[in-house]
Write a structure and sequence with these properties.
This protein is α+β, with helices and mostly antiparallel strands. The protein has 3 domains: 13-92, no CATH class; 129-193, Helix Hairpins; 202-345, Histidine kinase-like ATPase, C-terminal domain (Heat Shock Protein 90, 2-Layer Sandwich). The chain is built from 8 helices and 7 strands. It has helices at residues 13-40, 44-89, 108-156, 162-193, 206-223, 241-257, 289-292, 314-325, and strands at 202-205, 227-232, 236-239, 264-272, 275-282, 327-334, 338-345. The strands form 2 sheets. A 5-stranded mixed beta sheet has the order 2-4-5-7-6, covered by helices on one side. Strand 4 and strand 5 (275-282) form a beta hairpin. Helix 1 packs antiparallel against helix 2 and helix 3 packs antiparallel against helix 4. It starts with 12 loop residues before the first helix and ends in a 7-residue tail after the last strand. Residues 250, 253-254, 310, 314 line the site of magnesium ion.
């Protein structure tokens, strides 16, 4: 990009010449007036008084000129910036300073104004994100809390038989688990975003780690009569085993959740040079292109009727982890036919 030339405030070459010419004219006038007075009188006292008056008038003229120049070039933009920063400090992010000069004639004040505009736009965006986040979290907590309250009051009713009591207790446990999961995910995401989670890299067997995650899901997979096929290369990796566990768990849990009974899930791990490529495919409900464009956003869930299952934070976490560890994630899907999530972990393969 072409580097922009910024004009200094209160100084320009043309301005300096104009100022020089003005002083020269004033000096010339002073000399002419002095000659004129000397030609007409020999009274030294009078000459001194007239010269003094002349000096006062010319000095006042120069001061007035400088005063107006400062007012226009320094005081006016300073006041404009000051009032804008006062508004921002009081929480008003609607500020947008009008920059009078054209882009190629920017001076330092215009540059400060441009930066103030950029800062307020950024603050406005963060404010919107914060409000959205708070309303999403409140919404996600309110629903299970209402379930807990209702079922707890049902438990206090007389004549609840053992069987019903157990089923109420199960519902309460699963609703409270939903809140715990939500808070755990928010904390993890927050730590990842604030870069508080140091990606403790270690040498570990990626094939074993992936297999362990798959084994954890086997009971669920069997429950839904899903056929599972795995094709794993033997890969030793240098990366964060614990962070990657989040990735495998979320991708496999989604595949199971969004695949109907009797469907298929296949998981593969391939070594491609220094990179490791992991694919999780399912023959589930699939994802439309509109939904696909948003699945990595926090709290986004494609099908609101499934909002009971999860909070829409899983893939946001997955994406963040992949970004932190240096990799890529992509999705290919066809509505009604299934989805394939591909994770590429760059430069993780350890050959020793
Ligand atoms: N394998 C998949 N098949 C179909 N849709 C999917 C799949 N994986 C994700 N999605 C879509 O992407 C959305 C976001 O997924 P994400 O994992 O972030 O949230 P979630 O699974 O709904 O909730 P959570 O992960 O918090 O339990 C899902 O709600 C779903 O609409
Ligand atoms: Mg999920």
């Amino acid at each position: 990009m072409k580097k922009r030339k910024i004009r200094n405030v209160g100084f320009s070459f043309a301005g300096a010449i104009a100022f020089f010419v003005l002083i020269a004219i004033i000096m010339q006038i002073a000399i002419l007036v002095y000659d004129y007075i000397c030609d007409r009188t020999d009274n030294v006292g009078m000459i001194a008084v007239l010269i003094l008056i002349l000096i006062v008038i010319l000095s006042a003229f120069c001061t007035a000129f400088d005063f107006i120049r400062r007012k226009i070039t320094i005081e006016r933009p300073t006041k404009k910036i000051l009032s804008a920063t006062e508004k921002i400090a009081s929480g008003d992010f609607s500020v947008n300073l009008n920059i009078e000069h054209s882009y190629d004639k920017y001076d330092h004040y215009d540059l400060i104004m441009e930066n103030v505009n950029k800062m307020t736009a950024e603050l406005k965006k963060t404010e919107i994100l914060k409000v959205d986040f708070i309303s999403n979290v409140s919404h996600e907590i309110k629903t299970p809390l209402a379930v807990i309250q209702n079922y707890c009051s049902l438990l206090t009713c007389d004549g609840v038989d053992e069987e019903t009591r157990k089923s109420y207790a199960k519902t309460i446990i699963s609703a409270s688990k939903k809140i715990t999961d939500l808070i755990t995910n928010i904390l993890k995401l927050n730590k990842l975003e604030n870069q508080e989670i140091v990606d403790n890299k270690e040498v570990f067997n990626l094939t074993e780690a992936l297999s362990e995650s798959v084994i954890d899901f086997e009971p669920l997979i069997e429950n839904k009569n899903i056929t599972l096929s795995c094709d794993f290369d033997d890969v030793t990796a240098v990366s964060s085993k614990t962070l990657l566990e989040l990735v495998w768990n979320n991708l496999i849990s989604n595949a199971v959740k969004f695949t109907s009974d009797g469907g298929e899930i296949s998981i593969s791990l391939k070594k491609i040079g220094d990179d490791a490529e992991i694919k999780v495919s399912d023959t589930g409900v699939g994802i439309s292109s509109e939904v696909g464009a948003r699945i990595f956003e926090k709290f986004y869930q494609g099908d609101p009727s499934r909002s009971e299952q999860g909070n829409g934070l899983g893939l946001a976490l997955v994406k963040k982890v992949i970004d932190v560890l240096g990799g890529e994630i992509s999705v290919e899907s066809e509505l009604g036919k299934g989805s394939t999530f591909t994770v590429l972990l760059k430069g993780v393969v350890n050959e020793r």
